[in-house]
Specification:
Oligomer: single chain
Order of helices and strands: HEEHEEEHEEEHEHE
Number of helices: 5
CATH class: Alpha Beta
Shape: globular
Low-confidence stretches: 1-18
Number of domains: 1
Number of strands: 10
């Protein structure tokens, strides 16, 4: 019985470490999106707000990665939301896997302004209204980019990001 408990504890620690590492990579991707995407002039005043629905580990990693960083002259601020209903005005909204369902994505799209970058996790959300969707392909973290959605949102995506992305629209 003790071996089972020790094994479960070790496995739990391993899964937590792997999950934390994946969230750190996502945080780095999101920060790099701020450097390789141009928002319309109307979005270049005040703070640059990255809103995250759920995902405590990702929030911690985003705070680490963006600490004292700016997008142009804007300070990066990480805003957390417990649910989709709490979302307010932000430059980027990030949805965890539990919040990337088609129904919740539709609610998000109703709440955000027209130039918000929507980043989701799974469920082929880039084909359903998200601009960017994190996915795992061949055991590697990748992201899908919906070009049509980016254009509709007046977001100019750099060639660099185009070359890294899996283009879905």
């Amino acid at each position: 019985m003790k071996k089972l408990i020790v094994t479960l504890i070790i496995f739990g620690a391993f899964v937590t470490t792997v999950n934390a590492q994946a969230e750190k990579y996502k945080a780095l991707f999101i920060y790099n999106f701020t450097k390789h995407i141009e928002w319309p002039a109307s979005q270049k005043t005040g703070d640059f707000v990255v809103g995250v629905v759920g995902q405590n580990i990702l929030v911690d990693k985003l705070i680490e990665v963006t600490n004292n960083k700016k997008v142009g002259n804007q300070n990066i601020v990480i805003q957390t939301y417990k649910s989709v209903n709490e979302i307010t005005n932000c430059n980027i909204v990030v949805l965890g896997a539990n919040n990337s369902t088609p129904k919740k994505l539709a609610l998000v799209l109703q709440k955000i302004n027209s130039s918000t970058l929507v980043v989701s996790n799974g469920n082929n959300s880039a084909t359903k209204g998200a601009t960017i969707n994190f996915t795992i392909q061949n055991s590697k973290l990748k992201f899908e980019l919906n070009n049509a959605d980016a254009t509709k949102r007046q977001l100019k995506i750099s060639t660099y990001l185009h070359n890294l992305a899996v283009i879905v629209g």
